[in-house]
């Protein structure tokens, strides 16, 4: 079960990678970000598919999406210059709380 959780978290982080690569690909006109997008997307989906064989689907999907959403928002703030506001950070904390709740209550 521990391996499934580790794979799930890595897959969520890869969701952040493919989202960032998608933005950097320039509508798939730039080769390397486009290839990174495809590779990270495939690896992320493969990891999620493995995780759902050991973790309930609703929990696994919620953790995967939450990890990717929080990671992507933080990437946007840290690297892309998106605004960092108290309201945005509180919303991210609420996502994390929801993901932790899903894990604790499954």
TrEMBL record:
The keyword Cell membrane applies. Pfam families: Multi_Drug_Res (PF00893). It comes from Streptomyces daqingensis. Belongs to the drug/metabolite transporter (DMT) superfamily. Small multidrug resistance (SMR) (TC 2.A.7.1) family. This is Quaternary ammonium compound-resistance protein SugE. SUPFAM superfamilies: Multidrug resistance efflux transporter EmrE. The chain crosses the membrane at residues 35-53, 60-80, 86-105. PANTHER family: GUANIDINIUM EXPORTER, SMR FAMILY PROTON-DEPENDENT DRUG EFFLUX TRANSPORTER SUGE. It is a multi-pass membrane protein. InterPro entries: EmrE-like (IPR037185), Small_drug/metabolite_transptr (IPR000390), Small_multidrug_res (IPR045324). It is found in: Cell membrane. Keywords: Cell membrane, Membrane, Transmembrane, Transmembrane helix, Transport. The gene is sugE.
